[in-house]
Amino acid sequence: MDDSSSMDSVGEGRLDGNAVGGILAGLFGREMTAAPGRCAHCGTVNEMGAMHVYMRGPGVVVRCPACGEVVLRVVETTTAMFVDARGAAFVRIERERG
Ligand SMILES: [Zn+2]
Q1: Which among 41, 50, 45 has a CA at the least distance from the CA of 70?
Q2: Per-residue tens of pLDDT for the chain, all 98 residues
Q3: For ion ligand 1, residues whose CB falls within 5 Å
Q4: What is the Å distance from ligand 1's center to 39 Cα?
């Protein structure tokens, strides 16, 4: 399988790989585009940077590129950040090496 390219034309509301990386880094406090996550719907593991991310309404929606189901949903309010991760079986975040 080829690695997916962030040079693909982006569809309606869909963010490119760089924007995804920025959002994920903001959420998790580190570079996350290479972090693998497993879709709870179809079981496919994809790097976070390969997921399809849409910015619509009040939040960010991360969808599985294989089945199109929602993996992560993030909504920020003035006081908190809500992360709905029920569509993710896991997201692997490497420990930072000191
Ligand atoms: Zn899936």
Answers
A1: 41
A2: 444 444 444 556 888 767 778 878 887 888 888 999 999 999 999 999 899 988 876 788 999 999 999 999 988 889 988 989 999 999 998 887 76
A3: 39, 41-42, 44, 64, 66-67
A4: 5
